Amino acid sequence: MSGVTTSYRARDGVMVGRILDSSPEQTAESVDRACVAIRPLADTAPAQRRSWLDHLAAVLLDHRDELAALADAETALGMPRLTGEVERMAAQLRFYGDVAAEGSYLGVSVDTGPSLVRVNQPLGPVAVFGASNFPFAFGVLGNDTASALAAGCPVVAKAHPAHALLSERLAELALQALREAGAPNGAFGMVRGLQAGADLVRAAGVAAVGFTGSQPGGLALWRLANEREIVIPVYAEMGTVNPAVLTARGAVARATEVAEGFVASFTLGSGQFCTKPGLLLAPAGRSMPEAVGRALTALAPHSTMLTRGIADAVQMGVKELMAAGAELVTAAPGPGTGWSADAAVLRVSTAALAQGGRLHQECFGPVALVVEYDDPQDLREALAGLQGSLTGTVFTDGTDTDPDAAWLMLALAGKVGRVTVNEWPTGVAWTWAQQHGGPWPATSRPEATSVGAAALDRWVRPVAYQGVPDHWLPPAGRADNPWRVPQRRDDVG
Amino acid sequence: MSGVTTSYRARDGVMVGRILDSSPEQTAESVDRACVAIRPLADTAPAQRRSWLDHLAAVLLDHRDELAALADAETALGMPRLTGEVERMAAQLRFYGDVAAEGSYLGVSVDTGPSLVRVNQPLGPVAVFGASNFPFAFGVLGNDTASALAAGCPVVAKAHPAHALLSERLAELALQALREAGAPNGAFGMVRGLQAGADLVRAAGVAAVGFTGSQPGGLALWRLANEREIVIPVYAEMGTVNPAVLTARGAVARATEVAEGFVASFTLGSGQFCTKPGLLLAPAGRSMPEAVGRALTALAPHSTMLTRGIADAVQMGVKELMAAGAELVTAAPGPGTGWSADAAVLRVSTAALAQGGRLHQECFGPVALVVEYDDPQDLREALAGLQGSLTGTVFTDGTDTDPDAAWLMLALAGKVGRVTVNEWPTGVAWTWAQQHGGPWPATSRPEATSVGAAALDRWVRPVAYQGVPDHWLPPAGRADNPWRVPQRRDDVG
Prior knowledge:
The structure is a homodimer of 493-residue chains. Chain A has helices at 24-43, 46-62, 64-75, 79-102, 143-150, 164-181, 194-202, 215-226, 248-267, 288-299, 308-323, 350-353, 376-385, 405-413, and strands at residues 4-8, 15-20, 108-112, 115-122, 126-129, 155-158, 188-191, 208-212, 234-237, 243-246, 279-283, 303-304, 327-332, 340-341, 343-349, 367-373, 389-395, 416-421, 460-466, 487-489.
């Protein structure tokens, strides 16, 4: 088993390819190549790096249908979603290029007395561990890779075993496109296999890690990085339960609409979203568990999972939730072939939820809990007991005067990285104001985001230059500002 | 010994006070009080918090001479330095208040399509571990406390054992001043003793840690925080060797001036600066070790250290450096009473330096190494082998055309948080462009700074609000912008 990654077709479990894992020597070579690219990348104007990312985006779009088909075989996420996701990957590459060219990520600040110029500089090679569930948007050329290259850091990605063939093809296209665009050798590389991933995090030349995936996976890399002689940051975005709340007035106004929306959201992509709402808190006495159950039966999602392991974990997860006190309301059978999983709605009391444990943890897949609360105090305590999450959602009566909304905003803001009102959290826009992160253990760095303009901030650190003549400063800090980036100066109003 | 902190007069070693350590219950109460203050602090406009900090600054200035005298007894840092440092503490409190009121630390970003508003919010209670060497500027009311309060976080400081009586008095004045100014109960508190410090880092209510001090101390707290169920960030600023380079042309132009400046800088405050230049790299053949030795003899600093432990460590450190291959050039005797230490200059070859180990580590106190390099390549390799540091310094011939300067800027920027040219690094301005941090192990978070406007960024995390009606947003994110803070909006040019 060790030494080879096997690729399977998710819909029928047939093996479709085998990829040799990287040897320790190959991984070391990839890191060495990345180290050679540190200086050329850092010295390149952000607008020039944008042109590389734009070209890469164009090449990927040229191969949209081919890439989507390759991904669909390995992931069963479907062609409409996957062609759209190729477009999203390309748009993200362009967006991070735009953010780099805009230049505020460089954080330039100039004091004239005493003479101090502060400029962010790239950290160096970034190891990127993409996600299984978004083979493009969070894959080997996803948010982490795009934002790191935009910020001037070489990237060594680890191929994802859930889409090994796709990872190969994406890497091939990236190497070709970056070369064509004039990017230095070593700007991007890829390694294969579990051991190579660990080797990468341990490599002295690697300066930071980006990870999207499970809590055990993220924490393992975080521990590994903390054991290095030179500890490096691990930006791990891990799985969470993502609570959604239906207010008392909301339940009166639109219980059925919310039940249907909840089911659509938690079964989207077979429930394989890090932002999946896994827990609906609804007022007691309005039969919301049953309403959600009916909506699930009506939708009948027939979920195929990304891997056999995930499919098995869904089945096991439902058993664990029941062992922890949840009760099955309704299940909807999977297709029965390939990596099939049954979707399920369970109900649980606030008293059982308060015991924590498994009920507070993500069940990755088309599975969700409905919790009935008695009153606002009961709801408040249930929320206070939850772990940190990426998102928290409130459904009100839609009038902007719902009396529970204001305190729910505060309660959720203390627990999550993104609060949504009357909108389901699945779907993450890559924009300037986005925050895709949340309190530990949702992410290992709650102050950071893997999506949105601030994603670049993870890959830089500031250096202050004191008494340094202008021509010895980095370009972004010079008085003539050759890169045309925002400079905060204490000598102008 | 356990249960009591004893205060000594540094100049003669006489005991001047004993302070009871906090019990676990007292520490827990302090954290509970801080937790009660979370909401009121976060809901207060930054300009209002500035008014509290301004009042605190005024109260401290009213007690300037009393505080300086108290500090002088415990630290022997001298009245001129200490009265100046009280003024600096007050100025820092005002500065961080100004930074808060300016509001860019809130990082407000508004997208109109889709509707997303990103606003930083305070993390919650911050545990502050001040430094021995700056009883005011980095003490219980120093940079960490001031920036955390400015950012809207309650603070629980740990009293410093090297100035236990001063810590008590500062806490007393702070509680009084903050109450007078209208700050909520629990905005500031203090605990005493080693065990209380560990209890604080383990307390569930504590959200972040600020630390300034030794590498073993900082790493111990960092490990403790990493073992929590909810891991919290530790911003530890630790000791480093801080290289200074004299270029070949610089040695021709002003070897004597640099030798004298080096001695003045590394013996300042008895060498008890985290920014002390501990290592001078000078071209071979110009007798720089001897010149530095002569300058040390001429200055004759008579160093009294902050504690007996530090004085012992200086003596031990010189022995360790010699065991690692350094050779004593000159020593200057301490006063011989109290926490006396001999100042020392040692020389070491680049070959011995390349072995790493003790020669790469800080010797906290009036001790420095001079390393002679043969040529630029020799110098480049010596720098590449050094650990991360807070500062790196270059002395050129002063013409702005020194051929070594440009590459030295790049080499040092990869190793340190602040590069100074023709200025010694001791002395850290609290301004917008300051960066007081550096690569691991200089700090545990190289992207952060404990001094300067960005110090506030350590104590907040972003929350994005999606589809949230304006009146449910936090004030900083609202369209009418009641706090008048910078908002980045995608719907304005």
